[in-house]
Structure formats: structure tokens, C-alpha cells
Amino acid sequence: MSERLKSPYLGHRTVDAKGQPGPYVWRTYAECGELRSAIGSGLVHLGVPPGSTVGLYSVNTPEWCLVDAAAHAYSMVSVPLYDTLGPDTAAPRLHAVQYICNHAELAVVACSADVLPKMVEVLHDCPTVKLVVVFGTRPHQRLPEVPGAPHCRLLTLDRVKALGYKHPKPHHPPKPSDVALINYTSGTTGVPKGAVITHANIVANAAGAGMLLSQGPQGPLFAHGDRHICYLPLAHIYERFNFTLATHYGCAAGFYRGNVLELLEDIQELRPTIFSSVPRLWNRIYDKVLAQIQAANPVSRALFNTAYKYKQEAFRRGDLSGGRLGPFWDKLVFSKVKARVGGEVRLLSSGASPISPEVFDFLRICFGATVLEGYGMTETSCLISMTPPGDPKTGHVGPPSPACEIKLDDIPEMGYTNADQPYPRGEICVRGPIIFQGYYKDEANTRDTLDAHGWLHTGDVGMWIEGGRLKIIDRKKNIFKLAQGEYVAPEKIENVYARSPFVMQSFVYGNSLRPQLVAVAIPDPDFLLPWAKERGLPKDMGELCRHPQVVAAVLKSMLEEGRAAGLKGFEQVAAVHLHHEPFSVENGMMTPTFKLKRPQAQTFFQAAIDEMYSKLPQL
């Protein structure tokens, strides 16, 4: 334990007066423990009692984690706030923060100086918020006045810590059944729902994951001294889960600077050994590497292809070491790819949405690391199942976590039953100590999700394959019915179309009065621009998106991918509209975990959707 206390825990990069970042600066576990107690003592001294709800509002920072830990040490409830919970304009985003402040009856909000103006703007309508604690302020920076909110006090985190050091209070440890956090969904539809998660839920989830992670080919996959890059939103359960495991195993967590454009630079400085991300990033790395290989000279291209095929065949034989020559090819060819993420990564994990088997294999081959795919959701405190570290088979999410049980419920209207051959199919239902307590102040949605026997109905469709592995095959919640009565799951189709080199993102839409699907696609400029140049087409992405030859080529490629994946005729789109601006959190089209906000996308592209349907036959 003494060794753990002296080891680095939370790290960040300092930036000089010229804006140049320096190396990572670290606080040890012991130092963070003291800061946690000081912050918690300061809050208690300021009149915040156990059971109070404490909002956290910022991008990932060490301070976010310290306030979170302080809240838990004194039996307070953590409530993460997203910066972009609302749909697509500044006002609704502020209203979403205001909604959560009032719905969760926040007593305290800890926020960064960057988002303080947004917080101040809604404080007059948040009567329960008595204290705002601000971190990341500049030296001697004055906090603003809050007109219209005399009930609320603004203090810097440094001031709260100073009060805590002056007036130390003993910890008030929570009971396992006490609420640890209210995690609001990121709002892909309607009003955000607050998932109530206890300390027992979090511990059970981490314990189940720990049992799976202890079974790596060379021992435990998380270990004391590992370095984790903390950049996925801590307000989402996936990164909280990653950070909890990193803390449990004594790892060092290095924080990015808050700008995704600088993420690669931060990663190369940190040299993480553990890198958890989402398919969106893995797909980008995959596309860029393959594009560079295609553009390389014939000798380099042949060398890469030979090395890739050698390791791929070894994996298919079940040899995850990459074969006898695997280390040779890693050093000669793949070390250049691995250097993109610092060169020392040994564990990659993917979650939040499905990853294609091709990209999964690519990561294993090129990074020479253990690659895992997890399946989970906020309502299960995160992990439900995970691919075993030594499993050579891809395209599934592994067996259940030891902390839960899974059953498949028949969905006759979609043609999925437990009697299906060769594999049982149905809606994935989960039960066990990881299951949340319900949605805060929302009995109706809780009843829709949790049945009387304790089963959580996920809305995902799965099937059991060989070895007790779970494979996600469909989505029940976002399905819609076409005019001919066929049910369609757009997310499944979008994942297929993402395999097209032309397509970076897509939005598949169906109208119950029409028999065809249509789509909006965001072309990948890294592929489209060179393709267009070879054909003498315009260089501007906006012009290319309107060019008939480009539209036809993209649609052709999408349909080819659909046929290769076995999509039925009614699952293929009949028309596509191209748009040059990617879906993003900033433009309100995606949640902070990069899930498409379908209602917002439909509203934004309604004119294009109507135009596509106007040109299609009324079958």
C-alpha cells in the first residue's frame, strides 16, 4: 500500500505563457487522498450534508475526479452534467443543464472556469444550488457576480480546499446501498433520464470486470504502473468505469488538454499502456493507415500486406502471438503504426457501439496488443459482457460478466425467438447486482425498463453463438415499420454502410407510409478528395457532395457493402443525400459519446429527405 501511495495517480500537462504544452505533471495517490479529504471537509464546513447532490460540469480534468472522490468520501451523491445535453442550439443546451440542476435538486455544482459563464446564466432559475465551486481559474481571477441569484455563493476550489485544511472533518463513508451517482442519459431522444446507481452497483461491476481482466495471456491486463489516457467523457458511464478500474489497479491516469485536435499529441507525450476508446476513433485510424499504405511505394505496400496476412493467418489458427515471425513483423512493419499512440500500448478496448470484425483484427495485428470489446450501458453500471482476452474469434461481445446473468426474450414481431436455429435469438435482458435502481423521479420509464423479476430490458437484440458468446445483431428500440410491414433497425444498417471507404457517417431514415429507406451520408474527405482528383472533379467538399457522379458512386458503394453483409432488399437505401459537415457534439447531432441524435438529424435534414422521397416511385 505504501508503494501505491507514492506512485503517480492524476496527471495533466501544463501550458506556458506562449501556449506551448510541457510534460505531464503528476500528483501521487497520497497527495490526491489529502486533496480529496480537504475538498470534502471544505464542503461539509460550508454546510453541505451527507446525501446532498453535487453536480460536476467540465471536460475531463483531475479536479473533476477529486471533487467526485470527495463527494463519495462524505456520502454525497455525484451528478455529472454534460456540456451538450440539448439538441442543437445554445439555449436548449443551457436549459438541459438547468433541467438537471432542478430535477436532481443539486446543492453544489463544481465547474471549470471555461463553462462558468453558462452556469451563471441559469443560476437564477436553479434555486436549490447554494454553492458553485470553480476550478481552473487564472491567478487573481475574480469570480463574477450572479445577479438574480442571491441564494448562491461562488467560491474557487482553492478556497474550498483551504477551508477544509483549516477545518478537517472525519470521512462519512457511504453504505453499499447508498446512491453514488445519478447519471443522466445524453438525450438522444426527449428529456434526459437520470439513472440511479449505488456504490454496490459500481463495486459489483468493477469486480466482475476485474475477474475477466485477470485472465490475460501474460497475466492481469490492468496492473500497478500502467498509464491510462483519460479523454472519453467522465460524465458517461464508460469512462467512469475505465477510471474506476485504473484506480483500483493503481494505474496512472493522464488527462488530455480538452481539445480532441490535440489528443494525438497528448497521447504521444503520455505513451499510454492502456487505451480505451470508441469505434469512431478506431475506424479513423484504420482508414488513415490503409489510405497511407495504398499511397505508399510498391515495395512498402507489399511488405505491409505480407506482414499483415502472416499475422492474420496466425490469429485465425488461434495463435494470438502472431506466429513465429510475429515479433519480427511487429518490429519491422507495425512499430510505425504503434508509434501513433505512443508506442507502449498493450491493451486496447472498445465500447459504446459495435466495432467491425475487420477493424478489430486490424487493431490486434498492427498494435501487437490485447484488444477487447465490451458491451454495456448506463443502466447496468457499465459492463454486461466482454470478449475474453485469449479468444481468437471476432464479431461478438463475449460471455456475460461474472456480476450478472443474461437471458434472451422472444420478439415475435421481429422474427427473433429462443427456438431459432442454429442460434437462439431475442432481446437481451440482464439481471444481477450491477443493475441500477431505476430512473430518478421517473416511475413510468423505470417500469418500462425493469420488470417485476428484476430483469433489465436493454432494447438490444442478441444471439448466443458457440462457447456461450453473445453477439449483438439488431436494435429493438430504434426500429420502425415500413409501408409493406417490414421492421427495420437503422443502426444495424448504418454500421454496415460505415464499411464503405466513401462513408464516414450516415443516417438511415424510413417513413411508415413509404416502402423504401433513404439516407444522409457524410463522405470521408480522406478518401473522396483523392478519388475526385483522379477523375478531374472539384476539390471542394460542398461541391462534391452535390455532384451527381459522386452521389452515384457513394450510393453504389453503400449498396455493395449492404449486399456483402447480407442486408435484405428492404434494408437497403433507395437514395442518398450527401452532406459535407460531419455529425458532431458541437453541432448538436451527436451525444457526448458519439451516438447519433436521430430526432435532431431528421429535423435538420427533413427537406433533403422529402426531396429524395419525391423522386422515388410510390410502390
TrEMBL record:
<dbReference type="InterPro" id="IPR020845">
    <property type="entry name" value="AMP-binding_CS"/>
</dbReference>
<dbReference type="GO" id="GO:0005524">
    <property type="term" value="F:ATP binding"/>
</dbReference>
<dbReference type="Pfam" id="PF00501">
    <property type="entry name" value="AMP-binding"/>
</dbReference>
<keyword id="KW-0443">Lipid metabolism</keyword>
<dbReference type="GO" id="GO:0004467">
    <property type="term" value="F:long-chain fatty acid-CoA ligase activity"/>
</dbReference>
<feature type="domain" description="AMP-dependent synthetase/ligase">
    <location>
        <begin position="23"/>
        <end position="440"/>
    </location>
</feature>
<keyword id="KW-0547">Nucleotide-binding</keyword>
<comment type="function">
    <text>Catalyzes the conversion of long-chain fatty acids to their active form acyl-CoAs for both synthesis of cellular lipids, and degradation via beta-oxidation.</text>
</comment>
<keyword id="KW-0067">ATP-binding</keyword>
<dbReference type="InterPro" id="IPR000873">
    <property type="entry name" value="AMP-dep_synth/lig_dom"/>
</dbReference>
<dbReference type="InterPro" id="IPR042099">
    <property type="entry name" value="ANL_N_sf"/>
</dbReference>
<dbReference type="GO" id="GO:0016020">
    <property type="term" value="C:membrane"/>
</dbReference>
<keyword id="KW-0436">Ligase</keyword>
<keyword id="KW-0276">Fatty acid metabolism</keyword>
<dbReference type="InterPro" id="IPR045311">
    <property type="entry name" value="LC-FACS_euk"/>
</dbReference>
<comment type="similarity">
    <text>Belongs to the ATP-dependent AMP-binding enzyme family.</text>
</comment>
<dbReference type="GO" id="GO:0005783">
    <property type="term" value="C:endoplasmic reticulum"/>
</dbReference>
<protein>
    <recommendedName>
        <fullName>Long-chain-fatty-acid--CoA ligase</fullName>
        <ecNumber>6.2.1.3</ecNumber>
    </recommendedName>
</protein>
